[in-house]
Amino acid sequence: MTGLTIVLFIVGFLGAQRIHPILLPVFLTIAVYPFYFTFVSLGKLKEAVAIVLLWALITSILVVLTVFWVGEDAGKYIIRGLEYRKEMFEWIMTGKGAEGDINLFLVPKIIELTIFSLASFLTIGFGGLLLGSILLNYMNYYVGCLLLYAREEYFLHALILSWPIYAILRVVGYVFLGTALSRLFYTLIVDKKLRFKEVKSLVLWAIVFIVLDFILKATIANAYYQPLLKLILRI
Hints:
This protein has helices at 2-18, 23-41, 45-70, 81-94, 102-122, 126-148, 155-162, 165-191, 196-232.
């Protein structure tokens, strides 16, 4: 799967440059979905979660490396890349913005979570993975830009802070939830039953991780991450 993801990332990025940015997340989703669907259909949900987390890590590294190779212009070919980078850099400089303000991020995050859940359920995961790829790509474009602007003596600090703990928890929570919903719809189609017992543990853990994301984002983003990032960046 690793080799396939790398190859399809290259194909997708070239397609994004020449045709449309949507091709990058589409090809990345195609890279993981056959493996994911096989595990979901067999009821091997731990394996399904593991393969998606591995894929997320690989694609994250690829996007960040692409930013180092291409520069900030890579954002032109990543959906919402330039917009998200601008939003995050303004937050780092001013402390104002949706990143740490629950009044600004709560409703959009709930809408995002609802769309992700429906997409995961109704497409047995493909739509959820596609949306997840879009979210990961613009997040990692920002991470790449952040590292480009890191002061040389603080590069390691910037690397550690670039993916905040609450964002990591969110990714894991989304993967748990998406996998559970994929399995539910698969069993509904094949067995004509919603087998909630099979996915109960995954759903509970998903809720824990997503709630923690909300709590930590609302409390430590402005108090901890923003001032530290402002200190170590050349912006």
